[in-house]
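Morning!

As promised:
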Amino acid sequence: MRGVDDDGEDLERLLGAGLRPTRQRLAVMRTIRLGGRRHLTPESFHCELAAIGLRLSLATVYNTLNHLTDAGLLRRVGFGDRTWYCTNAAEHHHFFDEQSERLIDIEGEQPEVSGIPAPPEGMAILGVEVIIRVRRRP
Ligand SMILES: [Zn+2]
């Protein structure tokens, strides 16, 4: 069994996704793995990296998160004018807590969407994201 601090796993995941395992990407992958399942924003992740002494520009953090997403290692979730990067790359939908402005994975059985219209002429549907807005009851 692999340990929690297994850097080899990060190397394998990057190589498996066809990404060059630069020192920077390995450090980013390690930070993502050690932080567990969560939803990152470029700003929150930038702070997380700075807290462990990895000083990257916000633009670099943005680019790195997008590269990892395009390689299938993260999932990009957009809602309104905001974008999160979900560390759970499996197919799943989300709750959005309006008070804390936090995304929460829907675990287990996923909602089914029916009645999806045909896409506009010449276009193909890539996916459907379900985001269920919630707030704490008074
Ligand atoms: Zn998620």
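The first helix runs from residue 7 to 16.

Hope this helps with the figure draft.
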